[in-house]
């Protein structure tokens, strides 16, 4: 791509040439005789303001560092061919802390699964210790909203929503936070052993309500700032989503905020379920990676959900959940070995793309993916930033791996001004002593205007002088000249001619072309319009003057109902080419001329007293015993007698000849 540069030396602009001529590609400016030292061409500027080395293990002092650099400053020239690329490194730290929140469906069908998890606490902690020495586990449970049609609202059923034979059943509830993050295995086992099954009416559960509260109630859950955050969701059924609340008369949309009262979701029956998009947004915002541990019958449903939630995994539970520990280990390994780097929201005029530099990297795009990344293995990404337009102020955005806290802050601004090394002369002779040179152009003192500050506006108001250069309050000199002392000085065109006219509104190079010739080579361009030579016509003088193809067999031109342009008829509205003979859209003459036929043939009707004046459009008529072949016109006169006639249009818009049948008649009766 050709990148613009600026020649900032004086005496470069020729009379009538725009100041914009200073701006061109480097090669073009050199070709036009510019010296390299007089050319200003700002380059992208990149600097790293925070670049702490990567940590090897989580045992290092302070928070472990998995991403570098951490902060960069970027100044870009806008344009498709002016991006900047830098490298981003990521390394999985050995023993990085893990927070695991076990979120369990306690509807009645999960009874055997609850029994299994009560016996798996020790195994679950051992598995977590195998991943990291800094592991914590929390616990939460959910069923569904306690309103019809989701739950039986009979007081007895609310208190015991399980089967009558079930001895250990807790009252119906939406979402309950049971245990905050802890390293204490005994505490986890104790709280889980207290849990009892519950129940509801319909099959889908309040799953998304529970995930949302677990994601946004960070302080209650106990998520640490620097940890891998996991939600392990176990269920054997589907989920309600946004809009389902209307079935219970719940219309208030979910607002993605935390509502916990005595560890229960207090807005469960007042606020609709969240949408999948809302849940995905909060999980990503809070760097939480869900693992959906579901029964075989629900696998397809949750794999579809996983496609819409970045950094999530699905595993199939056995009938009683005894394989949940192995499922969690496998899902964690899949999540942690896939590194996906992306960014948060960007303005429309900024683009970021990633190119993975790793053995099992994905394609370049708006996300960078490296697969099968081992602990302690460093992978890199080339990050390319492009600014399409100038920005008013500096912006910043974050880049980082999904599901992790580590982020790179990018501060971005654009280079849209040339900083020229001009001599500091307040009253430069080049500006007639009335201004200062800035990038080869004069910046005039107050009271002076013009390319070289040659115009003194005196007591006049500069805005009124400039208004004199605007046609109909439009652009100054139509954007084709400089307004000097209220008069437009027009620019020179690339072809050598100049714009002209009071407001530089005219030029003689952009008239219509025919066969790639201006005005077809048969005329001259005058102020954007072709003036044709004798014998030629048309907007591009492309036609010889002739009416040969416009003449009817009778010799008239376009039947008197059009004009001949470029040897073709341009007909009056409604009439059709080639000769403007017929008008399908016009009202039939049998109707429009009926009253005139009555007064001309039988001296009756509304025009009988002034027939000769009212019916001049029928220039000739005859009373006949029989009409020519064809369907005649048939109208009724004032005496309800039927009048038959044939009418023909002559040349001209309203010019007819008619034949009128002498006899009129009613049904089975002749009229006098």
Automatic annotation (TrEMBL):
Pfam families: EGF_integrin, I-EGF_1, Integrin_beta
One MF annotation (Gene Ontology) recorded for this entry: protein kinase binding
Membrane topology: Single-pass type I membrane protein
One annotated Gene Ontology cellular component of this protein: cell surface
Cellular location(s): Cell membrane
Annotated InterPro entries: EGF_integrin_1, EGF_integrin_2, Integrin_bsu, Integrin_bsu_tail, Integrin_bsu_tail_dom_sf, Integrin_bsu_VWA, Integrin_dom_sf, Integrin_I-EGF_CS
PROSITE patterns in the record: I_EGF_1
Every Integrin beta subunit VWA domain range: 6-418
Domain Integrin beta subunit tail span(s) in chain numbering: 590-670
Alphabetical GO biological process terms: cell adhesion mediated by integrin; cell-matrix adhesion; integrin-mediated signaling pathway; leukocyte cell-cell adhesion; neutrophil chemotaxis
Keywords from the UniProt entry: Calcium, Cell adhesion, Cell membrane, Disulfide bond, EGF-like domain, Glycoprotein, Integrin, Magnesium, Membrane, Metal-binding, Repeat, Signal, Transmembrane, Transmembrane helix
Family according to the record: Belongs to the integrin beta chain family.
PANTHER family for this protein: INTEGRIN BETA SUBUNIT, INTEGRIN BETA-2
Full protein name: Integrin beta
């Amino acid at each position: 791509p050709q990148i613009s540069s600026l020649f900032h030396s004086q005496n470069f602009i020729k009379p009538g040439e725009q100041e914009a001529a200073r701006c061109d590609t480097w090669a073009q400016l050199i070709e036009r005789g510019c010296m390299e030292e007089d050319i200003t061409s700002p380059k992208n500027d990149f600097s790293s303001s925070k670049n702490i080395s990567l940590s090897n293990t989580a045992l290092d002092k302070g928070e472990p560092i998995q991403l570098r650099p951490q902060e960069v400053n970027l100044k870009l020239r806008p344009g498709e061919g002016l991006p900047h690329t830098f490298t981003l490194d990521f390394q999985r730290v050995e023993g990085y802390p893990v927070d695991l929140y076990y979120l369990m469906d306690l509807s009645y069908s999960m009874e055997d699964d609850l029994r299994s998890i009560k016996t798996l606490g020790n195994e679950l902690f051992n598995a977590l210790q195998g991943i990291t020495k800094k592991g914590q586990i929390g616990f939460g449970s959910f069923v569904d909203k306690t309103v019809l049609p989701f739950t039986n609202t009979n007081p007895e059923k609310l208190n015991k929503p399980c089967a009558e034979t079930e001895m250990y059943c807790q009252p119906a509830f939406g979402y309950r936070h049971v245990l905050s993050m802890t390293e204490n295995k005994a505490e986890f086992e104790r709280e889980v052993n207290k849990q009892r099954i519950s129940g509801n009416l319909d099959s889908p559960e309040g799953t998304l309500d529970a995930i949302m509260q677990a994601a946004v109630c960070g302080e209650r859950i106990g998520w640490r700032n620097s940890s891998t955050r996991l939600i392990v969701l176990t269920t054997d059924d589907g989920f309600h989503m946004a809009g389902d609340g209307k079935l219970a008369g719940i219309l208030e949309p979910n607002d993605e905020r935390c509502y916990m009262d005595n560890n229960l979701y207090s807005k469960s029956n007042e606020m609709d379920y969240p949408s999948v998009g809302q849940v995905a947004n909060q999980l990503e915002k809070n760097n939480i990676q869900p693992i959906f541990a579901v029964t075989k019958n629900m696998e397809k449903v949750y794999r579809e959900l996983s496609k819409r939630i970045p950094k999530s995994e699905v595993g199939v539970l056995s009938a009683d959940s005894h394989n949940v520990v192995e499922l969690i280990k496998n899902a964690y390994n899949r999540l942690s070995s896939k590194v996906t780097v992306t960014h948060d929201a960007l303005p429309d005029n900024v683009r970021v793309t990633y190119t993975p530099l790793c053995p099992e990297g994905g394609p370049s795009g708006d996300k960078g993916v490296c697969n099968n990344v081992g602990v302690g293995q460093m992978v890199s990404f080339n990050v390319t930033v492009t600014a399409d337009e100038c920005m008013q102020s500096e912006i910043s955005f974050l880049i980082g791996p999904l599901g992790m806290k580590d982020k790179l802050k990018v501060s971005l601004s654009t280079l849209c001004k040339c900083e020229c090394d001009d001599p500091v002369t307040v009253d430069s002779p080049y500006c007639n002593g009335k201004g200062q040179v800035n990038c080869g152009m004069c910046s005039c003192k107050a009271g002076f205007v013009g390319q070289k500050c040659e115009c003194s506006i005196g007591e006049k108001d500069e805005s009124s002088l400039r208004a004199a250069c605007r046609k109909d309050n439009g652009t100054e000199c139509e954007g084709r000249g400089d307004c000097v002392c209220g008069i437009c000085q027009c620019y020179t065109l690339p072809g050598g001619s100049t714009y002209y006219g009071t407001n530089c509104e005219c030029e003689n190079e952009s008239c219509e072309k025919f066969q790639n010739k201006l005005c077809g080579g048969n005329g001259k361009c005058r102020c954007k319009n072709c003036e044709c030579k004798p014998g030629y016509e048309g907007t591009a003088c492309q036609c010889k003057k002739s009416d040969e193809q416009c003449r009817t067999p009778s010799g008239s031109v376009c039947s008197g109902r059009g004009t001949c342009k470029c040897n073709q008829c341009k007909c009056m509205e409604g009439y059709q080419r080639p000769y403007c003979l017929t008008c399908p859209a016009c009202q039939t003459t049998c109707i429009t001329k009926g009253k005139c036929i009555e007064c001309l043939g039988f001296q009756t009707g509304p025009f009988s007293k002034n027939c000769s004046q009212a019916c001049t459009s029928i220039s000739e008529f005859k009373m006949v015993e029989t009409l020519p072949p064809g369907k005649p016109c048939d109208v009724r006169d004032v005496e309800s007698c039927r009048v038959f006639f044939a009418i023909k249009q002559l040349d001209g818009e309203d010019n007819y000849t008619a034949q009128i049948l002498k006899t009129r008649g009613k049904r089975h009766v002749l009229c006098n």
